[in-house]
Amino acid sequence: MSKRREGSEPTARQSTMCHNCGGQGHLLEPVCAVIGGSGRSLPQLRPCRWCGESGRVPGLTPPT
Ligand SMILES: [Zn+2]
């Protein structure tokens, strides 16, 4: 009889921090913009579509 230890417990309601945005709910993405004739990159806030801006995703998502 061997007992296996698994890292994740079968919890029904468990949320994990979104690895896509780091739990912020949004992402800062540099967007190229031309301002005054010169190209610049401006950081722009974009809502994270993985967690729906909540910063958390339901269930367990193992970091890859
Ligand atoms: Zn997210």
Automatic annotation (TrEMBL):
It comes from the Bacteria. InterPro entries: HSP_DnaJ_Cys-rich_dom_sf (IPR036410). This is CCHC-type domain-containing protein. It comes from Actinoalloteichus caeruleus DSM 43889. The lineage of its organism: Bacteria, Bacillati, Actinomycetota, Actinomycetes, Pseudonocardiales.
